[in-house]
Target: nitric oxide dioxygenase
Amino acid sequence: MDNLAQLLKESWTLVEGQRDKLAGYFYARLFLSDPALRALFPIQMDGQRDRLLEAIVTAVQTIDDPENFDEYLRALGRDHRKYHVRSTHYDTMGAALLDALRQATGDQWTVEYDQAWRDAYRAIAEKMQAGAAADGNPPFWHAEVIGHERRGSDIAVLTCRPLTEPLPYRAGQYVSVEVPLHRPRMWRTYSVANAPREDNTLEFHVRAVGAGWVSSALVRRVKVGDLLRLAAPMGSMTLDPHSTRDLLCVAGGVGLAPIKALAEELAGHNRTRWMHVFAGATTRDELYGLAELYELAANHPWLSIIPACSADPGFVGEQGEVAEVFARYGPWTTHDCYVSGSATLVRAALRTLAADDVPPENIRYDAFGDL
Model:
């Protein structure tokens, strides 16, 4: 496994800087081999290319960590049921991926690299199909929007409820969301912003990002009564049920969503653990979701909320980037640490935690974008 992981990571460096070219080769080869597959994908493919490469990179990075490799791929297989992927499609996709890697690297591609990717893809496909086969849930859930609240010009808090059976998930996980009315066949991932509830409702915090197709539709076009599709939950930024350590939670922007869900879950049973939440934003107007956390903290003294603004001189709370702010409150060596937000924020927070000698196994994070 060590030699395989080394060959995969070594060969990936040859294409890491030309991901668009790799994705272009892959989809051209895929649709040429099986034109019927094109109907499974959205008309606008830019975001889909990002999803493909994200999955490849994650698989390559975790292959030398058998437990996480297995867990990630089984979850990915369950998630891909929403695309109506069948077993025969895996062979077609594997051939297209290998051909794309050869095309993108040219003479730098070796027989050893080729065999390593064949072996890795075989393992990836087997685990994904096993995950899909073992899942007794539907490929996706139809959910009705029952609440839509705008918080500022580009953020919305949506509440929805599955129409039939509940969607099982854990606080801290995320799901893929499709807006069939406005953006059919385009799926994007969003963290669930609440712990599981008796009424089975799910809350999402969405920021409209630039010309983001799905996020803009969810913020500006979706209304109460509309239907969404929600896919199987993924992600491991969940509470360790066996840990007694206090918690550090660092959030930026709508990265507050899974942190809020973790706080709600802890509120159901916690008696001994302290939870420190650092919420960062550029200005106070972007600190959109603190009211619910303050209300929770009023009833649970173990919960503390520390907001920070990086470019708002008049803000009476902490000043500076949130990764710098929480460092001043350390050390955090004996805590379970959770980080959620942009890739820039997560990178900064991970550097701070590493400098504080926090054991890597005590750190869990979700990043919006590549690390």
